[in-house]
Write a structure and sequence with these properties.
alpha+beta; elongated; single chain; DNA Binding (I), subunit A; 194 residues; 19% helix; 6 helices
């Protein structure tokens, strides 16, 4: 039970039904119980019904794997909730880290131009940290692991490497652009355009 409560499997929409965030079921239940959000009962492609907390507790559980068992019975875990009073779409940048670098560089090694599988890439510091290089957007690129290993603590030109393009701080974008449906939740598709 605790495992299902702490995975980010709930899509949060603003009151205009635009995707703005993801939450865990535990967080979603708190928002719904406190009146800060309404759950969406997504019934196929044609029917989406907003449901307040008191009525949510009475909904039939369609899939035992997506329910929380309480002393009062099973409670369906929402897949999508709508924030009651929040209307904005936050503007943000990706976090500096492997996911952010991967997004900015499009999953392409910045030395070879090769599209990488997730296990093939890592972050390369253009100016190595051992030589005073910072961990910053302007000094980090996505690199094939073998290329990064070959480069080691040297500068790119010292090992015959050349960057395809200079790294940059990514532009700020609507938060919706950074939401990924890693768990393949069908109900999210209509709100993420996927």
């Amino acid at each position: 039970m605790s495992d299902i409560l702490h995975k980010t499997t709930v899509l949060v929409l603003n009151r205009n039904w635009q995707a703005i965030h993801t939450k865990t079921p535990a967080e979603a239940f708190c928002m719904m119980a406190g009146g800060a959000a309404t759950g969406l009962d997504v019934q196929g492609d044609d029917s989406i019904v907003p449901v307040r907390w008191a009525d949510w507790l009475k909904l039939p559980v369609r899939d035992e794997d997506h329910a929380v068992h309480t002393p009062r019975g099973a409670v369906r875990v929402p897949t999508v909730i709508v924030a009651a009073k929040y209307a904005k779409v936050p503007i943000c940048r990706p976090r500096l880290g492997i996911r952010g670098i991967w997004e900015r560089d499009g999953g392409v090694c910045q030395y070879t131009g090769r599209k990488l599988a997730p296990h093939e890439g890592n972050i390369d510091h253009i100016v190595p940290r051992s030589r005073g290089g910072a961990t910053s957007w302007e000094n980090c690129v996505l690199s094939h692991r073998d290329v990064n290993s070959k480069k080691g603590a040297r500068l790119p030109h010292e090992v015959g490497l050349r960057l395809l393009r200079l790294p940059h701080v990514p532009k700020a974008m609507p938060a919706t652009a950074f939401i990924r449906n890693h768990h393949g939740i069908r109900d999210w598709h209509k709100f993420l355009g996927a």
